[in-house]
Amino acid sequence: MRSAARGAQNIIQAVVEDKERLVPGGFYRECRLAEAENAKMDAMADLGQQLWEISDNLTEEAKE
Question: Which residues, in sequence order, are bridge partners of residue 29?
């Protein structure tokens, strides 16, 4: 279990870091880009887009 101060380190790092050095939407662990976790998210991007489209279609049908 992490202390509150240690848990906040990634957020603090993101706030003080130069924007050019950050990856938008990137997953960070221990103040560094977590390559393995980001690769998993990238691999699921198509699935996420499909889920979005299905959800969008369902909510549009519910409005009608």
Answer: 32
